[in-house]
Design a protein that fits this description.
The complex is a heterodimer of chains A (about 150) and B (about 625). With about 150 residues, chain A is an alpha/beta fold. Helix content of chain A is about 40%, strand content about 15%. In chain A, helix 1 crosses helix 5 and helix 2 runs parallel beside helix 3. The chains are: A alpha/beta (about 150), B alpha+beta (about 625). At the A-B interface, helix 1 and helix 5 of A face helix 10 and helix 11 of B.
């Protein structure tokens, strides 16, 4: 799975600004260079299961999925539910990123088997650090079994 | 209205009456006895007197014999001296008289054998004497007067003396008898007089005793009547002064009590309903009575007619019954009344009637309706409120999610610009970028605090007993971690209290942070003191600092959201901390207060209900 062209992180994020900041932070700190960014849950699932415009992508799961909670069409919780209920993707770490600290979201995410849960800070410096920490932890420290 | 019989202790009266009869019978008997005795006494006395009279009659007969025999003797002697036959005739006449007297005497003394013998003796001697005289007369005719005189002298007076003697015996015996009988008659008269005296005496005594008893009886009756009248008056006053309607009926259903409240409430004058002129069903809703009759018939298993029986059937079974009824007044108005009916019974448990006491419960029923309406309204309001709260929650969620994202982007791009174009920007432009970052970060904090405030208001309280000293210690450490300047903090007595530990910890953190923050300008002289005390039913906690204080004119603004008394640059903060403190304390049933003066420090206090030491 150490294919140079394989995707290391799948970022499912409807906000282009958040996506840009997330990717900049991860790249700038050298956590991941190959990041695939999709705009919502539908696209995210299409990527994961090689459907639609992704049916020709090379085989292989990303090493981590960063999910925004609130998105149009299909939100992060639904993606997580499908991700964790499918044998092909069950072992991929899913990290929920959200603007909200509301308990409902938190509990729902843990019930669905989220591997990490982070609230995006307003402060960019904090934001960058948080994203970096998540990347470091799940990309480098934690080796997940190959699917 | 009837006087209640039970007021007189009837058992006692019956006893009195029985004794009265005994005394009366005894008196009558005594009087009868006295009368009888007087009667017997008088009869006895009468018989004694009769005997005396009889004896006197006997005596007079004896005297007549004596006189006639003496005259006969004198006639005989004169005849002897003169020899004339006229004296013989006189003598014979007197002999007839004597003999007749003797004949009467024989009849009179038949009851007395001794005297009968005596009288027989007299009769014989009289006959012999007279026979001897006849013989002398015959001698005169035959031999002449002288021979007769001679013969008379020779014969002497022996037979005459014997006659005289026998008459004397007779007289003496009879006189003796007279004396005895007179004595007995006198005694008997005396007895009669006595009995005549003591009979009426007893009668008088009985009369006197009877009078006294009667008098006492009358007095007691009078007292009882007065007591009855008083009790009657009291009862009347009670009945008429009562706010409840009081209606009583006898066993025939005739109304015997109808008090003033009943009259006032129902619109009938007492005299129009008393004594069977109306029955109690008249004051009620007929439909309700029919329904109740059906119900009672089913419940009791006997037919209950839709009339006054519906009120008395259960009390008749010796159970008081309380129910709500619809009353109908004379002019057709209705009102709800709570009626309690009980039976009226005498000492032996005999049913005399029923008494009902009813209260107009319109007010209560109306109040209940109002409460019901209020409840309905409140429930609707509560539902609305819940909806509003839900809306607010979703609104705050949107704020949290939607407002934070653009802020993050503003801050992010400003920082990226700062990072990437650091060398190309002059100092002024760099400062602008910093200002953009600061403002967006600050707005983020404001939003976070607002959300936290709303969470504090919604989260259910988890009340437990809190060891306040440890809670304050933990809060102090947290406050110190965030603070840039450190004050000297002293902690005094801190009574324990009941509350939600997580929320109260937030209160302490906010108050201690404020105290440290606003006293920071004093540098090493900054002092914060924390203490608590029990005051009545509350525990009061306070945090005092010697910082910049505040103007008491603005004390009301302290606990408002986003209210800050100091300009932003001076001290960090969003102005939500004290609002959170107030929200939490109010939810615990406590109060917050603040005292301060510019540059003279501030004291923030809050109270919690004191629930006593842990058991």
């Amino acid at each position: 799975m150490n294919d140079l062209h394989s995707v290391e992180i799948l970022l499912v994020e409807d906000s282009s600004a958040d996506a840009e900041m997330t990717m900049r932070s991860l790249k700038k700190r050298g956590i991941a260079n190959r990041i695939e960014w999709v705009r919502d849950g539908i696209e995210g699932l299409q990527f994961l299961f090689r459907e639609g415009k992704y049916e020709n992508r090379p085989i292989g799961n990303p090493r981590m999925v960063l999910l925004d909670l609130k998105m149009p069409r299909m939100d992060g919780l639904e993606v997580l539910k499908i991700l964790k209920n499918d044998v092909r993707t069950r072992s991929v770490p899913g990290v929920m990123m959200t603007s909200s600290r509301e308990e409902g979201d938190l509990l729902a995410s843990y019930e669905l088997g989220v591997n990490s849960y982070v609230v995006k800070p307003v402060d960019f410096v904090e934001f960058a650090e948080t994203v970096t920490k998540i990347g470091m932890y799940w990309m480098l420290a934690n080796h997940t079994p190959e699917s | 209205m009837q006087a209640p019989d039970t007021f007189i202790p009837s058992g006692f009266m019956r006893l009195r009456r029985r004794w009265d009869w005994v005394i009366f019978a005894f008196a009558i008997g005594l009087l009868a006895l006295a009368t009888l005795q007087s009667f017997l006494q008088s009869r006895e006395s009468e018989s004694h007197n009769r005997l005396v009279a009889h004896t006197v009659e006997v005596l007079s007969s004896i005297e007549a014999i004596d006189r006639a025999s003496l005259l006969m003797e004198a006639d005989h002697r004169t005849h002897l001296m003169l020899g004339t036959p006229s004296w013989a005739e006189a003598r014979a006449r007197h002999h007839e008289q004597a003999d007749a007297a003797v004949g009467r005497l024989v009849e009179l003394v038949t009851d007395n054998p001794a005297q009968t013998t005596n009288v027989a003796q007299v009769r014989r001697l009289l006959g012999e004497r007279f026979a001897s005289m006849e013989r002398r007369s015959a001698q005169i005719e035959r031999e002449g007067v002288a021979a007769a005189q001679q013969q008379f002298l020779s014969e002497g007076t022996r037979s005459f003396d014997a006659l005289q003697g026998a008459i004397a015996v007779l007289g003496t015996a009879e006189r003796q008898l007279l004396s005895e009988r007179s004595q007995r008659a006198a005694d008997s008269t005396l007895n009669l007089r006595g009995s005549l005296l003591y009979g009426p005496g007893i009668a008088l005594l009985i009369l006197a005793v009877g009078f006294v008893i009667l008098r006492r009886q009358l007095e007691s009756t009078e007292r009882m009547r007065a007591a009855l009248a008083r009790s009657d008056a009291v009862q009347k006053a009670m009945l008429n002064g009562a706010g409840h309607m009081v209606i009583a009926v006898d066993t025939d259903g005739a109304i015997i009590v109808f008090n003033r409240a009943a009259s006032r409430k129902l619109g009938y004058a007492a005299e129009d309903v008393l004594g069977g002129r109306e029955n109690v069903a008249r004051f009620h809703d007929p439909d309700e009575i029919s329904d109740r009759a059906v119900e009672l018939t089913r419940e009791l298993g006997t037919r209950v007619l839709p009339g006054p029986e519906v009120f008395t059937e259960i009390p008749r079974r010796e159970l008081a019954e309380t129910r709500q009824w619809t009353y109908v007044t004379r002019d057709g108005r209705t009102f709800p009344g709570q009626l309690t009916v009980s039976s009226i019974r005498d000492d032996e448990g005999r049913l005399l009637g029923f008494i009902g006491m009813a209260e107009d419960v319109s007010e209560r029923v109306r109040a209940e309706h109002e409460i019901q309406e209020l409840n309905t309204t409140l429930e609707a309001k509560a539902e609305q409120l819940e909806e509003t709260v839900a809306e607010l929650e979703s609104f705050s969620y949107s704020i949290s999610h939607d407002l934070r994202a653009p802020l993050r982007h503003i801050h992010g791009y400003a920082r990226m610009l700062e990072e990437d174009a650091a060398g190309a920007l002059d100092a002024e432009c760099a400062r602008y970028l910093t200002a953009i970052s600061d403002s967006s970060r600050r707005m983020g904090l404001l939003i976070d605090d607002l959300l936290s405030l709303s969470r504090m208001g919604r989260k259910p309280l988890q009340i437990t007993m809190i060891t306040m000293a440890s809670l304050v210690q933990a809060a102090l450490e947290e406050a110190r971690t965030d603070a840039t300047q450190q004050a000297i903090v002293s902690i005094g007595d801190l009574p324990d209290a009941a509350g939600d530990p997580a929320l109260l910890r937030q209160v302490w953190v906010n108050l201690i942070s404020n105290a440290i923050k606003y006293s920071s300008r004093r540098g090493e002289d900054a002092r914060v003191s924390i203490s608590g005390a029990i005051e009545g039913g509350h525990v009061r906690y306070q945090v005092r600092d010697n910082g910049i204080g505040f103007d008491m004119r603005f004390v009301d603004k302290l606990f408002g959201v986003f209210q800050r008394l100091h300009i932003d640059e001076e001290f960090e903060g969003t102005g939500v901390g004290l609002a959170i403190v107030q929200r939490i304390v109010l939810r615990h049933g406590g109060r917050v207060s603040a005292v301060g003066a510019p540059d003279a420090g501030a004291t923030f206090s809050f109270t919690l209900p004191y629930r006593g030491p842990i058991e």
